[in-house]
Write a structure and sequence with these properties.
This protein is an alpha+beta fold. It is built from 6 helices and 14 strands. It has helices at about 5-15, 85-95, 130-140, 220-230, 255-260, 290-300, and strands spanning about 15-20, 20-25, 35-40, 60, 65-70, 120-125, 150-155, 165, 170, 180, 190-200, 205-215, 265-275, 280-285. Strands 4, 5, 6, 7, 8, 11, 12, 13 and 14 form a 9-stranded mixed sheet that branches. Strands 2-1-3 form a 3-stranded antiparallel sheet. It has a two-stranded antiparallel ribbon with strand order 9-10. A hairpin with a 5-residue loop joins β11 (about 190-200) and β12. The longest helix has 13 residues, at about 130-140. It is globular, with a radius of gyration of 20 Å.
Length: about 300
């Protein structure tokens, strides 16, 4: 396969290059004799996603933006292995040609993302001007503006402190390209967390907690990676919480059943606050826990 210089550069900037197991994002990086070089090249994809009539839970919509309450299992935009059935396919059907083109044909209007199985609030730009202004807010991460993103996370164990901040860089996992990991040479990532509730197991000792997380950066899988890094991975996280599967036996029977029925990581984007790109008005949206997480919460509380 022949790749142009611009294509190679784009792949490198996207984190697809690893040298001796270390992700390299600098196209000018010097290669030494004997280096082991790995380049993950995604398969060819269709040129443009098609409109698909997929139901959307629209929280707010106007001429500039649309706020969606994303369900479990909905991928945000087409990518390898998910060319159809995505939020973008649904948005093209719902909005027609009004979506912003800044994100390219694969990601029209997409300003930020949620993982496939993370539920909750997500805003999409409907024109280029709105896209630029919303992107600037997300790039600032609320440091100087009104942007706020809040998540509710059910995690294993009970942190010793009531709140804290995780400031650990994140990059691609050195051995698994579909996973992320805390790595010294990764991109800065900051997560603020606060314990809302602690839950006892069958033995009367703390087994799980409900934590609120606020993001100061927006890395892929950030909350999942950070909470796992401090020893409190998300309940139901098959990627970052595999070592905690046996802890499920400590849960009350009803909570065990609720966790099995959940079938995903217990993470929900419940809060989104933005500045409207045209009016400048502060908009705040909240999303209640979806049914399966309500059931999990109740069963943990009753234990």
């Amino acid at each position: 396969m022949e790749l142009s210089r611009s294509r190679l550069k784009a792949l490198i900037l996207d984190g697809a290059l690893a040298i001796d197991g270390r992700t390299i994002r600098d196209p000018g990086h010097r290669v030494n004799a004997g280096d082991t070089i790995e380049l993950a090249i995604p398969p060819d994809e269709p040129a443009e996603p098609l409109a698909e009539d997929i139901p959307l839970a629209v929280v707010h919509e106007d001429e500039d933006l649309i706020v969606i309450d994303k369900p479990k299992g909905l991928v945000v935009h087409p990518a390898a292995g998910n060319q159809t059935g995505t939020l973008v396919n649904a948005l093209i059907s719902h909005c027609g040609t009004s979506l912003s083109g800044i994100g390219g044909v694969k990601r029209p209007g997409i300003v930020h993302r949620l993982d496939k199985d993370t539920t909750g609030l997500l805003v999409v730009a409907k024109n280029d001007r709105a896209h630029r202004k919303l992107s600037a807010q997300f790039a600032d991460h609320g440091r100087t503006g009104p942007l706020r993103r809040g998540y509710l996370a059910f995690v294993w164990g009970a942190p010793a402190r009531p709140k804290g901040t995780i400031n650990e860089p994140i990059d691609r996992h050195p051995k698994s390209r579909d996973r992320m990991a805390v790595r010294a040479n990764g991109r800065i990532a900051i997560t603020h967390w606060q314990v809302l509730e602690r839950f006892k197991g069958k033995d009367g000792k703390p087994v799980a907690s409900l934590i609120e997380c606020r993001l100061e950066t927006g890395r892929t899988h950030q909350i999942r990676v950070h909470l796992a890094h401090i020893g409190h991975p998300l309940l139901g996280d098959a990627t970052y919480g595999t070592g905690f599967k046996t802890k499920a036996t400590r849960l009350p029977p009803a909570a065990q059943e609720a966790l099995t029925a959940l079938g995903r990581q217990a993470l929900h984007a419940y809060l989104l606050a933005i500045e409207h790109p045209t009016s400048g008005q502060r908009l705040e949206f909240r999303s209640e826990l979806p049914g399966p997480l309500v059931r999990l919460h109740r069963s943990l509380s009753a234990g």
